[in-house]
Design goal:
This protein has 10 helices and 13 strands. The chain has helices at 3-15, 18-25, 29-43, 59-84, 106-115, 128-136, 198-209, 223-231, 241-244, 276-286, and strands at residues 48-51, 54-57, 92-97, 120-125, 142-146, 154-160, 164-169, 179-180, 189-192, 215-219, 237-240, 250-255, 264-269. Helix 1 (3-15) packs across helix 2 (18-25) and helix 1 crosses helix 4 (59-84).
Length: 292
Amino acid sequence: MDLYSLNVFVEVVRQGGFTAACPHVHLTQPSISRVIRQLEHDLGHTLLTRDQREVVLTDAGKIVFNHANILLGQSARLRSELADMSGLRSGELSLGIPPLGGALFVPLIKKFKTKHPNIHLRLVEKGSKETENALISSELEIGTLLLPLNSQHFDQVLFSRDHLMLAVASSSPWAKRKSVRLSDLKDEPFILFPEGFALNDRILAACRAASFEPKIVSRSSHSQLITGLIDSGVGVALLPRSVAKAFTNVKLVKLAGPALEWNIALAWLKDSYLSHAAKEMIALAKANPLAK
């Protein structure tokens, strides 16, 4: 067993299959299969099974996957600390960005790469809950979390301040309204986000406070798919204004009553070692006017 084999194994799980993992590990599918077989032989356990073209973790695979993430995170930290000895001329920075609203980070990433072209940015798309766990396990060095967050565990810099709006099809009767009470939507089918998204908890809590349980008909983390589903009449969604306003196929309607906030921060584990690259990324984020 070595870190290389563990990295291949982790990418197969993350990407959901051998073929999907190929570009991420720069190996062919047969080569990946050989690496996994050798890893299973070395550990004496079957780690993956196939289920209708998808890979499924065995009980042993789940244990190895959890430990592999920790080992790979520690290895990345080790490389970062060693790279710090030569300044920012080389190295890697693992950055967690949200699948929803990830485009907000493009200007920040562009500034960073312009100043430090030789630093490899490893971008990982995760929901806030998964990002929190990845920061704790050292899989990520810095990442995006939905506010408020646990200030005992994390330090932060505010990155974006926003609120949720009702997104409906242009042909919907709601599209003609200037504002809508959340309780008015009790009979509407809702499109929510995947499990592990902290924003789901906020939406569900707001609906329950309005005395109804939303009927969930679909889930997605991709704004283009969500707005496409809305336009097709599948359901309605509560989306951040900054995300949804880029799509012309949906109409945004204000929610009456207290605003449902969508404020996100760049966060890192309190009192943890931060590489020079991470400190530079944080410094660039702090230059954001919202961070003042």
